[in-house]
Amino acid sequence: MSWVFTRVCSAFFDLWLSALLGVHSTEDIHEESKLDDLKAVTKRKHPARLWTAIGLIGTLLLWLIRPKVPYSHISGAIPFTFLEALVSRTPEAHHPMNNAFPLPELISEGHWKAPDGNFKGWSPNFDMGTRSLPDWASGSLPPGFERWSEEKNVTTMKNYYNPINDPLRITNLDRKLLEPLTRALKDHDVPITHVVLVMMESTRKDVFPFKSGSHLHREILNSYKSQDPDAMHQLNANLSHLTPIAEILTGESGGLPKSTRETDSSHWKDTAEAGMGGLNINGVLTGSSLSFKSEIVNHCGVWPLPLDFMEEIKSDIYQPCIVQVLELFNKFKKNSFASSSRDLNERRWTSTFIQAVTGIYADQNILNDQIGFKKTVYREDIGQKDAKHYHADMEEINYFGYSEREVYPYIEDAIDDAIKNNERLFLSHFTSTTHHPWGLPKGFQSEQYFSDESLIGKHEDMNSYLNSVRYVDTWLGDMLGLLDKKGIANETLVVFVGDHGQAFQEDSPVTGCYENGHISNFRVPLIFRHPLLPKIQVTANTTSLSIIPTILDLLVQTKSLNEKDSGITLDLMNEYEGQSLIRPYKATDDGRQAWNFGIISAGGEMLSVGSAAFPYRLILPLTQDFEFVFSNLETDPDEENLLRGWSVDDLVSRVKSAHGDKAGQWVVEAEKVGRWWVGESKRLYNHAE
Ligand SMILES: *[C@@H]1O[C@H](CO)[C@@H](O)[C@H](O)[C@H]1NC(C)=O
Ligand SMILES: *[C@@H]1O[C@H](CO)[C@@H](O)[C@H](O)[C@H]1NC(C)=O
Ligand SMILES: *[C@@H]1O[C@H](CO)[C@@H](O)[C@H](O)[C@H]1NC(C)=O
Ligand SMILES: *[C@@H]1O[C@H](CO)[C@@H](O)[C@H](O)[C@H]1NC(C)=O
User: Fold this and answer.
1) pTM of this prediction?
2) Is the CB of 271 under 6 A from ligand 3?
3) Ligand 2 atom closest to residue 238's alpha carbon, by position in its atom list
4) CATH of domain 179-300+317-504+516-573
5) I need a labelling partner for 65 at 20 to 30 A (CA). Which of 86, 116, 176, 677 fits?
6) What's the distance, CA 182 to chain centroid?
């Protein structure tokens, strides 16, 4: 179209401008085109004023009919686009160094809190000068503790996280432990010698466990044209075998009629007494739908960077990661004493990261070094012919590597070594079979849940995913069985968390996590499993940011640390942003909401903003290519009816008319807080713009 119109437009403006300025068009002399004749004729007939009028009307017309955002850039009227280019527009994101909190009335002096015990106080915008270092922060500290180091590098002028100045920080450490926990801890010892963190690939909360009546269950039932009761009963019986281990771990029933199967006997049996098993948290969203950003949240208790891919590995993570905290404990333990001590609290910690898939994708190996893992096991290690447990028929099940079962002997080794060396193990394991393309090992029987006619094309992916979920469910049982076999189950805390969810055609118009803010990518299971802790159902509208503070709180409260380490931990717990989930969660504090963020894969394009205080959710675009999206999870828990707008004002007016003024006002605040947070995060990571 441009090719066709360029000459005409050019001729038109040439005529107009030359008529306006009373000069002859330069083109008259050189141009040999047929337009010359036209120009000559029109110029003679029409005076300059007429051309100006035509020009102005044309411009106005263009201005009026130009398309709305986001297509506005497609057409622009010349004088306005010139002006826009000349007038510098206010930048979208706040500059990290000059980023004032947008709700100043909530953090004004009247709201400040004085220090109290381990609580450091809270007074944003008030420069207290340098903070005095705690007792434990002397000598050389392990990586991750730079902000406590006496030899801080003054030449670089780095930014550090300071809980006293964080306008969003809400602590619940001043609240009492959950009542059943207090009772249990008074009752009997609950030793936590070892900690296992199982990050579960693409594991949605609605498949952990799979439940009757869920959106997903309805989708499966609806795929059958004739809902013959017998067939539906058989189908439900089949579905009841999807996630039996998840049902045990969460204490949530799938609500489907149980049928027995031959394979049942090979499944893991819970040794915990009735009513025991630990905490199951409902209402958790992941901190990021990009796996390795989520790994940072789960291991370090920080938000990741709202930038595409793993920019975090180019800077320092702004809090010590759990492995580094354990390393700090080691610093104060004498080798000789630890290796002979019968007192578990005097033993040294060791850390291992194990997964059956590649460790070099997206620089994960560099990230794991940064998090502080001393040992790692990846596909690259176990696939070597000279690897300890190599066998010729190892089978790759997807483009990332092997099935989890291939690392079973390596996990066993890690446990054996820890026991032999009288050490305490921090083991991190990342499952992988539930990743696209949901390949299964040959021996594992795939099942069909959706109807024949609906399977091809429509429900194929979800059906494969459900089979991989069933496979991983049995694998989790095997892992727990290994803890039983090694005799450490009763002294091991196992944290299960989904790295993120996974949206399918059944959930959202866009599938997958990439640039897709849909809620099914964010709801994840979170369980703190310990056979000697009471089974407690917790509901907290929180994120995986709470994992590290909760693990630390549990270590102290179960008396699984010596006095010195307890002191350090009580101090450190007051440095993290997340709340502890073994105490009642604070959805608000003195007028402030507990904001939740979710970095949407790949990271820098859009941000999920939510709050524990309201059921609303805003997808905030960080570039001009995406819309603002609003959902009300109370009325629309599966986000089937989203409100969209290309500008905040657009969206707010739509939200107000559909959900009321309060919801609209919330969106206004969420947008401001989200934008502020993006700048703040870059500041904390010392990310140069
Ligand atoms: C401080 O940082 C600068 C720049 O990164 C570096 O050149 C210098 O050696 C550092 N100094 C110390 C004492 O670490
Ligand atoms: C249930 O599973 C069995 C195999 O385990 C299969 O033969 C049967 O067709 C399934 N029934 C339904 C209704 O999906
Ligand atoms: C864990 O402790 C419970 C009760 O204290 C006991 O019944 C169970 O056998 C123990 N499990 C293991 C694996 O030691
Ligand atoms: C979590 O949010 C939901 C609405 O989304 C609300 O009904 C519920 O009360 C909240 N739970 C807590 C513990 O704040």
Assistant:
1) 0.90
2) yes
3) 1
4) 3.40.720.10
5) 86
6) 31
